[in-house]
Amino acid sequence: MDSLNRIFRALLDNTNTDFVRYLHDTILWDSRLIAILGARGVGKTTLLLQHIKLYDNVDDTLFVTADDLYFATHTLYDLALEFYQNGGKKLYIDEIHKYNGWSTEIKNIYDQIPGLKIVYTGSSILDLEKGGADLSRRKLEYHLNGLSFREFLSIDRGIELPVHSLETILSNKIEFPFDKARPLALFKEYLQYGFYPFYNDSGYYIRLNSVLNQTLENDIPNFAQLNVSTANKLKKLLYIIAQSVPFKPNFSKLSRDLDVSRNTIPDLIFYLEKAGVLNQLRDDTRGIKLLGKVDKIYLNNTNLAYAISNSAPEIGNIRETVFFSLMRTTQEVTTSAVADFSIGKYTFEVGGKNKGQKQIAGVKDSFIVKDDIEYGYKNILPLWAFGLTY
Protein backbone atom coordinates (compact mmCIF):
# COMPACT_ATOMS: atom_id res chain seq x y z
CA MET A 1 0.00 0.00 0.00
CA ASP A 2 2.99 2.31 0.47
CA SER A 3 3.57 2.36 -3.28
CA LEU A 4 -0.05 3.37 -3.88
CA ASN A 5 0.30 6.19 -1.39
CA ARG A 6 3.48 7.48 -3.06
CA ILE A 7 1.76 7.53 -6.45
CA PHE A 8 -1.22 9.31 -4.90
CA ARG A 9 0.95 12.03 -3.34
CA ALA A 10 2.81 12.58 -6.61
CA LEU A 11 -0.47 12.96 -8.52
CA LEU A 12 -1.76 15.38 -5.90
CA ASP A 13 1.36 17.53 -6.12
CA ASN A 14 0.79 17.92 -9.86
CA THR A 15 -2.91 18.73 -9.62
CA ASN A 16 -3.91 22.30 -10.47
CA THR A 17 -6.90 23.70 -8.59
CA ASP A 18 -7.23 27.05 -10.38
CA PHE A 19 -10.42 25.89 -12.09
CA VAL A 20 -12.83 23.26 -10.76
CA ARG A 21 -15.62 21.78 -12.89
CA TYR A 22 -19.30 22.69 -12.54
CA LEU A 23 -20.28 19.34 -11.03
CA HIS A 24 -18.10 19.65 -7.94
CA ASP A 25 -20.39 21.82 -5.84
CA THR A 26 -23.48 19.70 -6.56
CA ILE A 27 -21.91 16.53 -5.14
CA LEU A 28 -22.75 15.53 -1.56
CA TRP A 29 -19.17 14.63 -0.72
CA ASP A 30 -19.93 13.37 2.81
CA SER A 31 -22.08 10.50 1.51
CA ARG A 32 -20.81 6.97 2.13
CA LEU A 33 -20.81 5.88 -1.51
CA ILE A 34 -20.53 8.22 -4.49
CA ALA A 35 -20.26 7.32 -8.17
CA ILE A 36 -19.07 9.89 -10.71
CA LEU A 37 -19.64 8.64 -14.24
CA GLY A 38 -18.87 10.13 -17.62
CA ALA A 39 -17.40 9.55 -21.04
CA ARG A 40 -13.67 9.13 -21.51
CA GLY A 41 -11.72 12.36 -21.34
CA VAL A 42 -14.23 14.67 -19.64
CA GLY A 43 -12.13 15.20 -16.49
CA LYS A 44 -13.35 12.75 -13.82
CA THR A 45 -9.85 11.97 -12.49
CA THR A 46 -8.91 15.62 -12.14
CA LEU A 47 -12.18 16.36 -10.33
CA LEU A 48 -11.38 13.78 -7.63
CA LEU A 49 -7.81 14.94 -7.13
CA GLN A 50 -8.89 18.58 -6.95
CA HIS A 51 -11.46 17.81 -4.28
CA ILE A 52 -8.93 15.88 -2.22
CA LYS A 53 -6.35 18.65 -2.49
CA LEU A 54 -8.83 21.37 -1.56
CA TYR A 55 -10.92 19.71 1.14
CA ASP A 56 -9.56 16.41 2.47
CA ASN A 57 -6.93 15.45 5.04
CA VAL A 58 -4.41 13.53 2.92
CA ASP A 59 -3.24 11.56 5.96
CA ASP A 60 -6.52 9.62 6.12
CA THR A 61 -7.28 9.70 2.38
CA LEU A 62 -6.15 7.42 -0.45
CA PHE A 63 -6.59 7.73 -4.21
CA VAL A 64 -5.97 4.67 -6.41
CA THR A 65 -6.48 3.72 -10.03
CA ALA A 66 -8.32 0.45 -10.50
CA ASP A 67 -5.92 -0.89 -13.12
CA ASP A 68 -2.83 -0.40 -10.95
CA LEU A 69 -0.46 -3.41 -10.89
CA TYR A 70 -1.11 -3.62 -7.16
CA PHE A 71 -4.42 -5.29 -7.96
CA ALA A 72 -2.73 -8.13 -9.77
CA THR A 73 -2.11 -9.69 -6.34
CA HIS A 74 -4.59 -7.79 -4.13
CA THR A 75 -8.32 -7.16 -4.17
CA LEU A 76 -10.16 -3.91 -3.69
CA TYR A 77 -11.65 -5.30 -0.51
CA ASP A 78 -8.20 -6.22 0.86
CA LEU A 79 -7.00 -2.68 0.19
CA ALA A 80 -10.07 -1.06 1.74
CA LEU A 81 -9.84 -3.18 4.90
CA GLU A 82 -6.11 -2.58 5.41
CA PHE A 83 -6.52 1.13 4.71
CA TYR A 84 -9.40 1.41 7.20
CA GLN A 85 -7.60 -0.57 9.91
CA ASN A 86 -4.69 1.86 9.60
CA GLY A 87 -6.86 4.93 10.13
CA GLY A 88 -8.16 5.53 6.60
CA LYS A 89 -11.45 7.35 6.22
CA LYS A 90 -11.90 8.18 2.52
CA LEU A 91 -11.02 5.87 -0.38
CA TYR A 92 -11.15 7.25 -3.93
CA ILE A 93 -11.06 4.70 -6.76
CA ASP A 94 -10.50 5.96 -10.29
CA GLU A 95 -11.60 4.14 -13.47
CA ILE A 96 -13.30 1.39 -11.54
CA HIS A 97 -14.60 -0.14 -14.77
CA LYS A 98 -11.09 -1.54 -15.31
CA TYR A 99 -11.43 -3.85 -12.29
CA ASN A 100 -13.26 -7.14 -12.88
CA GLY A 101 -16.11 -7.76 -10.47
CA TRP A 102 -15.92 -4.23 -9.11
CA SER A 103 -19.58 -3.89 -8.15
CA THR A 104 -19.62 -6.94 -5.85
CA GLU A 105 -16.49 -5.79 -4.03
CA ILE A 106 -17.81 -2.24 -3.63
CA LYS A 107 -21.02 -3.69 -2.17
CA ASN A 108 -19.02 -5.78 0.31
CA ILE A 109 -16.87 -2.81 1.32
CA TYR A 110 -19.97 -0.67 1.81
CA ASP A 111 -21.77 -3.32 3.87
CA GLN A 112 -18.86 -4.61 5.92
CA ILE A 113 -16.72 -1.50 6.50
CA PRO A 114 -19.34 1.14 7.36
CA GLY A 115 -16.74 3.60 8.68
CA LEU A 116 -15.12 4.03 5.27
CA LYS A 117 -16.38 6.49 2.66
CA ILE A 118 -15.93 5.53 -0.98
CA VAL A 119 -15.92 7.65 -4.11
CA TYR A 120 -15.35 6.04 -7.49
CA THR A 121 -15.26 7.19 -11.08
CA GLY A 122 -16.16 5.07 -14.05
CA SER A 123 -17.24 4.94 -17.64
CA SER A 124 -20.76 6.14 -18.35
CA ILE A 125 -21.52 2.62 -19.61
CA LEU A 126 -20.95 0.94 -16.24
CA ASP A 127 -24.57 -0.11 -15.94
CA LEU A 128 -24.22 -2.26 -19.06
CA GLU A 129 -22.20 -4.71 -16.98
CA LYS A 130 -24.09 -7.97 -16.54
CA GLY A 131 -24.14 -10.07 -13.39
CA GLY A 132 -22.81 -7.41 -11.02
CA ALA A 133 -24.17 -6.38 -7.64
CA ASP A 134 -26.99 -3.83 -7.54
CA LEU A 135 -25.65 -0.67 -5.89
CA SER A 136 -28.61 1.56 -6.74
CA ARG A 137 -29.89 1.72 -3.13
CA ARG A 138 -26.46 2.46 -1.71
CA LYS A 139 -24.84 5.01 -4.02
CA LEU A 140 -25.36 8.60 -5.06
CA GLU A 141 -24.65 8.78 -8.79
CA TYR A 142 -23.50 11.86 -10.68
CA HIS A 143 -22.72 12.36 -14.37
CA LEU A 144 -19.96 14.67 -15.61
CA ASN A 145 -20.37 16.21 -19.04
CA GLY A 146 -17.73 17.93 -21.17
CA LEU A 147 -16.85 21.60 -20.81
CA SER A 148 -19.56 24.18 -21.29
CA PHE A 149 -18.79 27.37 -23.19
CA ARG A 150 -18.72 29.17 -19.82
CA GLU A 151 -16.09 26.76 -18.48
CA PHE A 152 -14.06 27.01 -21.68
CA LEU A 153 -14.00 30.79 -21.35
CA SER A 154 -12.76 30.52 -17.78
CA ILE A 155 -9.98 28.05 -18.53
CA ASP A 156 -8.86 29.42 -21.89
CA ARG A 157 -9.26 33.17 -21.51
CA GLY A 158 -9.75 33.80 -17.79
CA ILE A 159 -13.23 35.21 -18.45
CA GLU A 160 -15.31 34.45 -15.36
CA LEU A 161 -19.06 34.32 -15.89
CA PRO A 162 -21.83 33.12 -13.58
CA VAL A 163 -24.05 30.18 -14.41
CA HIS A 164 -27.20 31.46 -16.11
CA SER A 165 -30.57 29.77 -15.71
CA LEU A 166 -32.64 28.94 -18.78
CA GLU A 167 -35.16 31.59 -17.74
CA THR A 168 -32.42 34.25 -17.60
CA ILE A 169 -31.32 33.36 -21.11
CA LEU A 170 -34.91 33.41 -22.42
CA SER A 171 -35.36 36.90 -21.00
CA ASN A 172 -32.13 38.03 -22.74
CA LYS A 173 -30.62 39.10 -19.41
CA ILE A 174 -27.16 37.75 -20.14
CA GLU A 175 -23.95 39.02 -18.62
CA PHE A 176 -20.89 39.16 -20.86
CA PRO A 177 -17.87 41.50 -20.80
CA PHE A 178 -18.38 42.81 -24.32
CA ASP A 179 -15.86 45.59 -23.60
CA LYS A 180 -13.13 42.95 -23.16
CA ALA A 181 -14.04 40.19 -25.64
CA ARG A 182 -16.52 39.27 -28.34
CA PRO A 183 -18.39 36.01 -27.86
CA LEU A 184 -18.84 34.88 -31.48
CA ALA A 185 -15.18 34.22 -32.30
CA LEU A 186 -14.68 32.48 -28.95
CA PHE A 187 -17.78 30.35 -29.48
CA LYS A 188 -16.49 29.18 -32.86
CA GLU A 189 -13.30 28.05 -31.15
CA TYR A 190 -15.35 26.19 -28.54
CA LEU A 191 -17.34 24.39 -31.23
CA GLN A 192 -14.13 23.05 -32.76
CA TYR A 193 -12.00 22.16 -29.77
CA GLY A 194 -13.44 23.34 -26.44
CA PHE A 195 -15.52 20.41 -25.16
CA TYR A 196 -12.82 18.17 -23.66
CA PRO A 197 -10.51 19.51 -20.90
CA PHE A 198 -7.43 18.18 -22.71
CA TYR A 199 -8.06 20.52 -25.68
CA ASN A 200 -4.80 22.36 -24.99
CA ASP A 201 -2.70 19.22 -25.45
CA SER A 202 -0.82 18.95 -28.73
CA GLY A 203 -2.48 16.84 -31.41
CA TYR A 204 -5.96 17.34 -29.97
CA TYR A 205 -7.90 15.60 -32.74
CA ILE A 206 -5.43 12.69 -32.76
CA ARG A 207 -5.97 12.30 -29.02
CA LEU A 208 -9.72 12.63 -29.43
CA ASN A 209 -9.80 9.92 -32.09
CA SER A 210 -7.73 7.73 -29.78
CA VAL A 211 -10.30 8.23 -27.00
CA LEU A 212 -13.05 7.36 -29.46
CA ASN A 213 -11.27 4.20 -30.61
CA GLN A 214 -10.74 3.04 -27.03
CA THR A 215 -14.44 3.53 -26.38
CA LEU A 216 -15.52 1.63 -29.51
CA GLU A 217 -12.92 -1.14 -29.43
CA ASN A 218 -12.65 -1.81 -25.68
CA ASP A 219 -15.20 -0.15 -23.41
CA ILE A 220 -18.46 -0.93 -25.17
CA PRO A 221 -17.54 -4.48 -26.31
CA ASN A 222 -16.34 -5.43 -22.82
CA PHE A 223 -19.38 -4.16 -20.97
CA ALA A 224 -21.98 -5.12 -23.56
CA GLN A 225 -20.30 -8.51 -24.10
CA LEU A 226 -20.12 -8.07 -27.85
CA ASN A 227 -18.21 -10.46 -30.08
CA VAL A 228 -15.47 -9.08 -32.32
CA SER A 229 -17.65 -9.03 -35.40
CA THR A 230 -20.45 -7.07 -33.76
CA ALA A 231 -18.00 -4.70 -32.07
CA ASN A 232 -16.54 -3.82 -35.48
CA LYS A 233 -20.01 -2.78 -36.60
CA LEU A 234 -19.96 0.04 -34.03
CA LYS A 235 -17.34 1.95 -35.99
CA LYS A 236 -19.19 1.59 -39.24
CA LEU A 237 -22.46 2.62 -37.59
CA LEU A 238 -20.85 5.72 -36.09
CA TYR A 239 -19.37 6.66 -39.45
CA ILE A 240 -22.77 6.33 -41.17
CA ILE A 241 -24.46 8.48 -38.53
CA ALA A 242 -21.68 11.09 -38.53
CA GLN A 243 -22.08 11.67 -42.28
CA SER A 244 -25.67 12.84 -41.89
CA VAL A 245 -26.07 14.32 -38.43
CA PRO A 246 -28.77 14.86 -37.32
CA PHE A 247 -29.53 11.31 -38.38
CA LYS A 248 -33.09 10.06 -38.72
CA PRO A 249 -32.91 6.37 -37.85
CA ASN A 250 -33.99 3.88 -40.48
CA PHE A 251 -33.33 0.57 -38.77
CA SER A 252 -34.15 -1.57 -41.81
CA LYS A 253 -31.64 0.25 -44.01
CA LEU A 254 -28.99 0.21 -41.27
CA SER A 255 -29.42 -3.52 -40.77
CA ARG A 256 -28.72 -4.06 -44.48
CA ASP A 257 -25.74 -1.69 -44.50
CA LEU A 258 -24.20 -3.32 -41.43
CA ASP A 259 -25.33 -6.87 -42.18
CA VAL A 260 -26.81 -7.34 -38.73
CA SER A 261 -30.28 -8.07 -37.44
CA ARG A 262 -32.69 -5.13 -37.45
CA ASN A 263 -33.28 -5.75 -33.74
CA THR A 264 -29.56 -5.30 -33.06
CA ILE A 265 -29.42 -1.73 -34.38
CA PRO A 266 -31.25 -0.03 -31.46
CA ASP A 267 -28.94 -1.81 -29.02
CA LEU A 268 -25.80 -0.61 -30.83
CA ILE A 269 -27.10 2.96 -30.92
CA PHE A 270 -27.98 2.73 -27.23
CA TYR A 271 -24.44 1.58 -26.40
CA LEU A 272 -22.98 4.52 -28.31
CA GLU A 273 -25.28 6.87 -26.42
CA LYS A 274 -24.35 5.39 -23.04
CA ALA A 275 -20.66 5.76 -23.89
CA GLY A 276 -21.05 9.48 -24.58
CA VAL A 277 -20.56 9.23 -28.34
CA LEU A 278 -24.13 9.92 -29.49
CA ASN A 279 -27.21 11.70 -28.17
CA GLN A 280 -30.70 10.49 -29.10
CA LEU A 281 -33.46 13.06 -29.38
CA ARG A 282 -36.78 11.52 -28.36
CA ASP A 283 -40.34 12.74 -28.42
CA ASP A 284 -42.17 13.53 -25.19
CA THR A 285 -44.30 10.40 -25.07
CA ARG A 286 -43.67 7.85 -22.37
CA GLY A 287 -43.67 4.12 -22.91
CA ILE A 288 -43.02 1.14 -20.67
CA LYS A 289 -39.32 2.04 -20.45
CA LEU A 290 -40.10 5.73 -19.88
CA LEU A 291 -38.38 6.54 -23.15
CA GLY A 292 -40.06 8.24 -26.05
CA LYS A 293 -39.62 7.32 -29.67
CA VAL A 294 -36.25 8.36 -31.12
CA ASP A 295 -36.70 11.10 -33.70
CA LYS A 296 -33.09 12.13 -34.45
CA ILE A 297 -29.58 11.07 -33.52
CA TYR A 298 -26.78 13.57 -32.98
CA LEU A 299 -23.11 13.27 -32.16
CA ASN A 300 -22.53 13.91 -28.47
CA ASN A 301 -20.69 17.17 -29.13
CA THR A 302 -19.39 19.28 -32.00
CA ASN A 303 -15.72 18.49 -31.33
CA LEU A 304 -16.42 14.91 -32.40
CA ALA A 305 -17.90 16.21 -35.64
CA TYR A 306 -14.70 18.07 -36.48
CA ALA A 307 -12.54 15.10 -35.43
CA ILE A 308 -14.45 12.50 -37.45
CA SER A 309 -15.33 14.47 -40.58
CA ASN A 310 -13.07 14.45 -43.62
CA SER A 311 -14.34 17.91 -44.50
CA ALA A 312 -15.88 20.83 -42.62
CA PRO A 313 -19.12 19.69 -40.94
CA GLU A 314 -22.39 21.21 -42.17
CA ILE A 315 -23.00 24.34 -40.09
CA GLY A 316 -26.71 23.70 -39.57
CA ASN A 317 -25.92 20.34 -38.00
CA ILE A 318 -23.24 21.91 -35.80
CA ARG A 319 -25.74 24.45 -34.47
CA GLU A 320 -28.33 21.85 -33.58
CA THR A 321 -25.71 19.53 -32.10
CA VAL A 322 -24.27 22.13 -29.74
CA PHE A 323 -27.70 23.32 -28.59
CA PHE A 324 -28.75 19.76 -27.76
CA SER A 325 -25.39 18.87 -26.21
CA LEU A 326 -25.39 21.89 -23.91
CA MET A 327 -29.02 21.88 -22.87
CA ARG A 328 -29.37 18.16 -22.15
CA THR A 329 -26.88 18.57 -19.27
CA THR A 330 -29.40 20.52 -17.19
CA GLN A 331 -32.74 20.10 -19.00
CA GLU A 332 -34.93 17.39 -20.49
CA VAL A 333 -34.85 18.10 -24.22
CA THR A 334 -37.36 16.49 -26.59
CA THR A 335 -38.31 16.85 -30.22
CA SER A 336 -40.87 19.44 -31.32
CA ALA A 337 -43.75 18.93 -33.73
CA VAL A 338 -43.18 22.34 -35.31
CA ALA A 339 -39.52 23.20 -34.69
CA ASP A 340 -36.20 21.63 -33.69
CA PHE A 341 -36.48 21.17 -29.92
CA SER A 342 -38.79 21.42 -26.93
CA ILE A 343 -37.82 22.01 -23.31
CA GLY A 344 -40.90 21.82 -21.12
CA LYS A 345 -43.38 24.39 -22.42
CA TYR A 346 -40.76 26.13 -24.57
CA THR A 347 -40.17 25.57 -28.29
CA PHE A 348 -36.85 26.32 -30.03
CA GLU A 349 -35.91 26.67 -33.68
CA VAL A 350 -32.14 26.82 -34.22
CA GLY A 351 -30.50 28.51 -37.22
CA GLY A 352 -28.23 31.24 -38.57
CA LYS A 353 -28.60 35.00 -38.28
CA ASN A 354 -31.08 35.13 -41.18
CA LYS A 355 -33.45 32.55 -39.66
CA GLY A 356 -37.04 33.82 -39.82
CA GLN A 357 -40.09 33.43 -37.58
CA LYS A 358 -42.31 31.59 -40.09
CA GLN A 359 -41.78 28.11 -38.64
CA ILE A 360 -42.92 29.08 -35.14
CA ALA A 361 -45.52 31.68 -36.08
CA GLY A 362 -48.43 31.49 -33.64
CA VAL A 363 -46.65 29.05 -31.30
CA LYS A 364 -46.77 30.17 -27.68
CA ASP A 365 -43.48 30.37 -25.73
CA SER A 366 -41.41 29.82 -28.86
CA PHE A 367 -37.94 31.16 -29.63
CA ILE A 368 -35.53 31.53 -32.53
CA VAL A 369 -31.99 30.60 -31.47
CA LYS A 370 -29.54 32.27 -33.85
CA ASP A 371 -25.88 31.65 -34.43
CA ASP A 372 -23.71 34.61 -35.50
CA ILE A 373 -25.51 37.23 -33.39
CA GLU A 374 -24.12 38.81 -30.24
CA TYR A 375 -27.32 40.13 -28.69
CA GLY A 376 -30.87 38.82 -28.47
CA TYR A 377 -34.14 40.70 -28.81
CA LYS A 378 -37.63 39.64 -27.70
CA ASN A 379 -37.89 35.96 -28.72
CA ILE A 380 -34.60 35.93 -30.65
CA LEU A 381 -31.74 34.44 -28.63
CA PRO A 382 -28.00 34.12 -29.34
CA LEU A 383 -26.87 30.49 -29.58
CA TRP A 384 -23.66 31.11 -27.61
CA ALA A 385 -25.69 32.15 -24.55
CA PHE A 386 -26.91 28.59 -24.06
CA GLY A 387 -23.31 27.65 -23.29
CA LEU A 388 -23.56 29.51 -19.97
CA THR A 389 -26.06 27.17 -18.31
CA TYR A 390 -23.51 25.07 -16.36
TrEMBL record:
<dbReference type="InterPro" id="IPR027417">
    <property type="entry name" value="P-loop_NTPase"/>
</dbReference>
<dbReference type="Pfam" id="PF13173">
    <property type="entry name" value="AAA_14"/>
</dbReference>
<dbReference type="InterPro" id="IPR041682">
    <property type="entry name" value="AAA_14"/>
</dbReference>
<protein>
    <recommendedName>
        <fullName>AAA domain-containing protein</fullName>
    </recommendedName>
</protein>
<feature type="domain" description="AAA">
    <location>
        <begin position="31"/>
        <end position="153"/>
    </location>
</feature>
